[in-house]
Amino acid sequence: MAGKKQFDMDTALDAAMIQFWRDGYADTSLDDLSRATGLNRSSIYSSLGDKDTLFLRCLDRYAARYGEKYDAALTSAAPEPVAAVRAFFDVTLQRIADPELPDGCLIAQSAMAIPVLSQGVAAHAKQALGSQRRRLRAALTIGGLTDQDAETFAVHAAAVNQSLAVMSRAGATPAQLQAVVGVTVDALARAPRA
After folding, report:
1. Rounded CA gap, 127 and 120, in Å?
2. What average pLDDT does the segment 154-165 reach?
3. Which residues, in sequence order, are bridge partners of residue 145?
4. Whole-number Å distance between alpha carbons of 151 and 140
5. How far apart (Å, rounded) are the C-alpha atoms in residues 9 and 12?
6. Could you tell me where the beta strands, DSSP code E, fall in 9-92?
7. pTM for the full model?
8. Mutual orientation of helices 119-142 and 51-77 as an angle, nearest 10°?
9. CB 178 within 8 A of CB 93
10. Pairing with 120, which of 34, 56, 179, 183 sits 20 to 30 Å away (CA)?
11. How far is residue 45 from each of residues 29, 51, 53, 151, 171, measured CA to CA in Å?
């Protein structure tokens, strides 16, 4: 249509995702989203939805993008649980080391913000966080851990993964993050197999 400004939806969603990732849900205003996406408020509402809707789209985008990377890493190292968990953490450490991306993790930030999120957004954040545990548990079960040990280590590894994101935002060095991963991987190496 002549005179109507066109934009690339993927580019706008990526820009909004980075904005939420950098500043968190509560500290991201519609003006921030407008600056990040290059869209005015009415275009954001008409094309991307209200703030909650846009945040959910960004959270889903983030979870899908990194979920695929985690799944590929876990699959490539299966059925060896230690290698699978190390590969899982490598995805996180590579993301953290990427200078083009904000520090931390959008899912971790969202989980920490649950008290100020709407009920629907909070439930979505919990679901995204739970999918990390589920994918780890599946890989550890395939790797021969008992159901109970697979669940315990999956909960632990998901918690460590989120703490890496928090630590990176607080300025932890790559060596410190590697050391945290090393302790977790060493503990898993000593776990009994089914």
Report:
1. 11
2. 95
3. 193
4. 8
5. 5
6. none
7. 0.88
8. 0
9. yes
10. 34
11. 13, 8, 9, 41, 35
